[in-house]
Amino acid sequence: MYEVYETGNCLSPVNEGSFCCCGMDDPLANTLLDSVFDSMTKVEEAARLGIFVTSIIKERTDGVGGPTDCTIHNKGEGMSSAYTRVKVEEIEKRFPHTDLYQAILEYWASKNADVRGNISRSTWKL
Fold it and tell me: Nearest Cα to 47, choosing from 4, 84, 98?
């Protein structure tokens, strides 16, 4: 996650709780990020969130794919550090998309019981 650099057409790391997405299907990415990210999000959590959202975009957007790279930098530390491919893949596996889709489906069904009827959760399909 990056923010637009104030003095030009550049990107810089997130600062002061704002972010920007670049690339394909950024409205979906921004919606997902905006629902979770806030100015108190720590670097490690923001990295996980970025990897999770990127994995959803790779799954749901034509032409987006391949391995995800992640580099983090903590204020006051001299160097940035890159996550290994193994660490990124572990994070992707830790947050399966089906859990998110199931939560959305359950939310939707709970708000539409008057038109859906009393449907058993076991019959819901993702």
Answer: 84
